[in-house]
Amino acid sequence: MKAMITACCLFFCLMSCQDSSSVKTSAIDQKVQTQHETSMINDAHLNYLYKKVSLPNGREAAIIHIYSDYPDYSFDIEPKEGFTCVDDVARAIVFLAGEQGTKERIVKLTEFLLYMQNENGWFNNFIWKDLSINTTYQTTVAEPSWWSWRAYWALEKGLPIYQDTHPELAERVIHSIDRLLENTQTYLASMQQVDNKIEGVQIATNLPYESAADQAAVLLLGLNQTYARTKDVALEKMMRQLSDGIIRMQISDGPLKGMLLSWQNIWHAYGNAQSYALLKTGQALNEKAYTHAALKEIDSFYPYLEEHGLLNELKVEYKDESPQIIEQKTFPQIAYGVRPIVFAYVEAFRQTRNKKYRTGAGFWIKWFSGGNDAKAKMYDVSTGRCFDGIQSENEINKNSGAESTIEALLSIQAFNTMNE
Predict the structure, then answer these.
(1) Predicted confidence band at 122 (pLDDT cuts at 50, 70, 90)?
(2) So where are the chain's domains?
């Protein structure tokens, strides 16, 4: 209890720049407000986005609405995609797996993920309003891509929560994971590493989409959990292929030293979870090279971002044997770009207990309370909403969809664990 209070107080101090209200409240309201302010985890908006549904296959499930639009935060639908997706349901499961009293929601959301697994073993991403599956648009095709890896991570993350109480569901989930892993093993075996450079930058060719280190990181998180659950040494080959490929995408010198490229010769903030995945894998396989590469990015490149501000994207070339930035985008900045950094710092602190990593996590968590280029409070603890992004120093996207909401909650949840 003392540790939890300390974590909450520390977070409250970091968020202290949030707006204060001059509205008088009752004693009960003040107590509720105080609980929200000290814990910072308010899943009210996530609960608003959550909805139970009856699937066409006859099973009871739940979805997460993707879009919630300012000013009334009504739901919206993307005409080419749909109104809910595997990506955000998976995010919700990963978050809820770290909270108490969430088993029923995890079970219902898991039923949705199972419904979305295509007969080919991969996952479709979106469904239409009538709950039929969108199988054709480019961001929903059942293939080895983001949504399949996120579904895998979430299925493994949620499994321990209900395995004892819902054995039939657990059996179906394990079967689903096995199907995906069989596909993944074949897919990765077909990817060969060859010498390849883009604008002088060495890249991997044996990752998803040849050099998608960002996707490889999410896949690694699922593999780490399966490895811990099954102790199947056959998984090590895939884990090492992915980790070695990610390391091959690391800039070794210059002002960008340590940076782990996301894809080809591009680094982007969103989904850049390579350091976190390498730390987890390095510990699981007792492989110091993976841990070292992760800490190299955290120790060298993250301070570059702290000095220059969060960036959206960088493109790099090697010229005269030195890495140089040839394209740079500052905006938009989103919660999904901050959360991977927070995760990496928190995991580095967990493994090393070095206080500098706690400090780093504290620096980035303040992005949600105004420590950003727009000096805007992006996460509102009173509502549980996180704005969808910073468009410029003077413009905020005040929509609050599932991705932003859950990525903010995941960041705060991870930050709080450092004092448990």
Answers:
(1) very high
(2) 44-190, 193-330, 331-420
CA dist list (Å): 190 to 74, 147, 203, 207: 45, 20, 17, 10
Q: What is the full DSSP assignment across 363-385?
A: HHHGGGGT-STT----EETTTTE
Q: Which residues of 308-329 are buried (b: 16+ CB within 10 A; e: fewer)?
A: eebbbbbbbbbeeeebeeeeee
How is residue 311 written in tokens? 């960036």
* d(C-alpha 107, C-alpha 161), whole Å: 9
Asked if omega into 208 is within 30° of 0 (cis), the reply is no
Give the DSSP H or E segment for 397: strand 395-397
Range of weakest confidence among 32-36, 75-79, 152-156? 32-36
CA distances from 283 to 93, 186, 280, 348, 355 (A): 24, 26, 5, 11, 19
Omega into 56 within 30° of 0, i.e. cis? no
Q: What is the largest CA-CA distance in the chain?
A: 67
Residues 6+ apart with CB under 8 A from 310: 269, 330, 333, 337, 338, 367, 372, 373
Range 374-402 average pLDDT: 98
Q: Are 27 and 38 in contact (CB under 8 A)?
A: no
Contacts of 266 (CB under 8 A, 6+ apart): 313, 314, 315, 316
Burial category of 245 from C-beta neighbours within 10 Å (exposed 0-12, middle 13-18, buried 19 and up) = buried
User: Token pair for residue 386?
Assistant: 């996180």
